[in-house]
Amino acid sequence: MPKINQLWTMDYRPKKTYLYHTNHPETMRTFILILSAGVLLASCGKKAQTAATPDARAADSVKAYLKGHLNDPASYQPETFGKLEKNFSSYMNDDNYYTYSNWIARTKEQSDKKDSAAVYQERKRSGFYDKMFREGMRKMDSLKKNYKSSFMGYKITHSYRAKNTAGSIEPQQAVFTLDTAFSVLKMDKAGK
């Protein structure tokens, strides 16, 4: 028990014991060291997750996709994965390609069709069909020459066994199209 004259001089405020309240350099260095070690360990854990090979990431994505889209996911038995191929855009996927190819096909169809003899003869004589066909081909060639393809993702073939709608396990093969983040965009079944 303190003496009465000491009561007036005692400080009853709670002492600041938390690390961030202290001004001691040694304690702050320890705190910063522990904090940076924690950040370093957390970042190494994330790198280990993303360091998987592209083939492994594609296989994992395909397996997860199939588990969610098969008739009986429990019957899924993976067999083989093909080579992972890069998928690039093509001029054939361009909207203009369809426009020009339809233009050429319609011109050819109209030149072969003889609905009205007078109209057909006039167009044939003036070279209308030939001009239209050449114009369509010129635009198509220009599109092919100037098209810049871009990386769209990947494709991988996968063979597996799974139950069909009748309940029997049968071998199946499919080509999977994946985006750049290895998410499955579509699955095209192939005959075996």
What attributes does this structure have?
SHC Adaptor Protein; about 50% helix; about 190 residues; five-stranded antiparallel beta sheet; 6 helices; alpha+beta
Mind telling me the C-alpha Rg?
A: 35 Å
CATH architecture verdict of the largest domain: 2-Layer Sandwich
Number of strands: 5
Question: Hey, roughly how much beta strand do the residues contain?
Answer: 15-25%
Largest sheet: 5 strands, antiparallel
DSSP helix fraction: 40-55%
Based on Cα principal axes, name the global outline: elongated
* Termini gap: 93 Å
Poorly predicted runs are none
Question: In CATH, what is the class of the largest domain?
Answer: Alpha Beta
Looking at the structure, the CATH topology of the largest domain is: SHC Adaptor Protein
Give the total of domains: 3
Please summarize what this structure is.
This protein is of the alpha+beta class and 192 residues long. It has six helices and five strands; from the N terminus they run αααββαααβββ. The protein folds into three domains: 32 residues; 78 residues, SHC Adaptor Protein (2-Layer Sandwich), CATH 3.30.505; 56 residues.
Q: In words, what does this structure look like?
A:
The protein is an alpha+beta fold and 192 residues long. It has three domains: 19-50; 54-89 and 149-190, SHC Adaptor Protein, CATH 3.30.505; 91-146. 48% of the residues lie in helices and 20% in strands. It has six helices and five strands, in the order H-H-H-E-E-H-H-H-E-E-E. The protein has helices at 4-7, 25-50, 54-69, 95-112, 117-126, 128-146, and strands spanning 77-81, 85-88, 151-163, 169-178, 184-190. Strand 3 (151-163) and strand 4 form a beta hairpin. It is elongated and about 100 Å long.
